[in-house]
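> forwarded from #structure-qc
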């Protein structure tokens, strides 16, 4: 049975509340996934992703980046809430790392098998968490912001990385994707990048309305293909870790 439970935790002076999602019928400790929201905060649009991960045997924490009870009421408000994180990537890393620690501290979670998965703003958070050297088995960014003032260095990221991106994305344009590819190559990291030629920004968010100015559009076909890659990525990382290859 899929269970959803609020989880209170704290970063500096800010009270946070995430949501733990797990299948209570799965025995033993489960690998953990920190699921990081888009700029509109934790919402129902994330639940299909959390449930899919839980059904696959992962304990999921919907990470709260904004604060307990703080939910953007529109895009303008969301931009105000994300601005401090975009301006200060060390602050972004610190808050995301607190979420990872909250996930790892749960009795149902195997703290040696941790993943981060984020969408859009959350994808940026996941990648910054990985760049910080956090103990992640794998990191997944779905149409996340890819730029950073602190590029990864050789040996700085312990786990593997998966980036899923739409070539029609105008929020995170292809120039940014090319720079990210160069960063990963220079750092000699285990990174897989999949480009979807028929997708833009938001292709895994079922609430997104098409917007030609930003390239925003939900795409059911791309979402299905993306999740096949995600599950395959997670399973490969789990297999290699169990075999002592990671």
């Amino acid at each position: 049975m899929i269970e959803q439970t609020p989880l209170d935790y704290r970063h500096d002076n800010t009270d946070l509340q995430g949501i733990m999602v797990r299948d209570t019928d799965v025995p033993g400790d489960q690998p953990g996934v920190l699921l990081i929201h888009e700029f509109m905060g934790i919402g129902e649009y994330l639940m299909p992703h959390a449930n899919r991960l839980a059904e696959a045997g992962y304990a999921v924490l919907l990470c709260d980046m904004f604060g307990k009870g703080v939910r953007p009421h529109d895009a303008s408000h969301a931009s105000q809430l994300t601005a401090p994180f975009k301006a200060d990537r060390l602050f972004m890393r610190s808050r995301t790392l607190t979420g990872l620690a909250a996930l790892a501290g749960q009795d149902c979670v195997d703290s040696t098998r941790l993943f981060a998965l984020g969408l859009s703003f959350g994808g940026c958070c996941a990648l910054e968490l990985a760049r910080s050297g956090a103990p992640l088995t794998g990191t997944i960014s779905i149409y996340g912001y890819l730029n950073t003032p602190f590029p990864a260095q050789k040996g700085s990221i312990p786990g593997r990385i998966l980036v899923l991106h739409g070539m029609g994305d105008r929020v995170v344009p292809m120039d940014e994707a090319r720079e990210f590819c160069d960063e990963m190559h220079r750092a000699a990291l285990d990174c897989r990048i999949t480009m979807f030629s028929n997708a833009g920004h938001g292709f895994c968010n079922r609430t997104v309305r098409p917007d030609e100015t930003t390239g925003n559009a939900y795409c059911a076909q791309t979402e299905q293909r993306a999740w096949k890659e995600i599950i395959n990525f997670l399973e490969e990382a789990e297999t290699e870790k169990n075999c002592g290859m990671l």
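QC bot note: Residues 179 and 189 are 14 Å apart (CA to CA). The chain has a mean pLDDT of 95.
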